[in-house]
Structure formats: structure tokens, C-alpha cells
């Protein structure tokens, strides 16, 4: 609970009457289904792209980031709050860790969640195509015409700038 408002705030409505604004703490916990044990704490409030969101200090904040800050303090500049459980709606601080963009991408790739190669819905080539291209003695422009891709894509395949995971 470091640096985050936990008590209600006294406000006045347009008639000058005192009204109580619920604290972030109260608003946060009413939107969490804690489950049991070490399960994910599922965010059941508003979401954007699968991530929980809560209004705080005049803007929407990602709920998992708020959870991290309550337990661990401010998030260092350049760091991201990542999920061990790969559940974007999870706000269980035991399931969260700090990392860089590269750390998060490496974690994603190790867990097989990246969209490389044929898993990319925009891919025009298959792994078999890549193997054939690399084994071919044809000119790059000829391969580009055969596989209906640009000559630059063929060059990147041959130089292993793309499809490096295919051997």
C-alpha cells in the first residue's frame, strides 16, 4: 500500500453538501474475484484489450499495475509489470513481475505465445517455403515471383533476418 490512496476522500457536490468518494482501495477490491489459494485474481471490472482498468488520478490505469504498486511501491522508469500467468486480467501480485520490453518478449517467446512464422496471420510463407527458398539456386527476384512476395522478403529469409527459427 505504498503511495496509493486507501482512505475515502471528502468532496462537496454542486449544492455544497459533503459527499464521500470511495477510496481507490474500495473501488479496486469490488472489481476483483480472488478465487482461492494461488489462483489468478480475476479483474471483473472494465477492461481494455483484456487488461483491467480503473479510474485513478484523472485517468484510466491498468489494474495489474495498481496492484503491483500497492505491494511493491512505484514502478521504476522503463520497467513494465508483466504476468507470470499470462492472464491479462490477473491482478494477483504474486503473479506479477517487473521487466523490460525485451524481458517480456523473451518470456512470451519461451512460452510459445509469439506470432512468429506461420502463427502470424499475415505471413505469406510457410516453414516449408522458407526451407525451399534457402535451398534454391534461383535468383532472388525469381523466388519472389514464385512465392508472391517482394525480393526484400526473400533476401531477409536467406540472410536469416526473418524466419531465423527455421532450420
Overview of this structure, please?
The protein is of the alpha+beta class and 167 residues long. The chain folds into two domains: 9-110, no CATH class; 117-158, no CATH class. Helices cover 31% and strands 19% of the residues. The protein has six helices and nine strands. The protein has helices at residues 24-29, 63-72, 101-110, 127-135, 140-147, 151-158, and strands spanning 9-12, 18-21, 32-33, 42-43, 47-48, 51-56, 59-62, 80-83, 96-99. The strands form four sheets. It has a three-stranded antiparallel sheet with strand order 5-6-7. A two-stranded antiparallel sheet has the order 1-2. Helix 5 (140-147) crosses helix 6. The longest helix has 10 residues, at 63-72. The protein is elongated. The N and C termini lie far apart (50 Å).
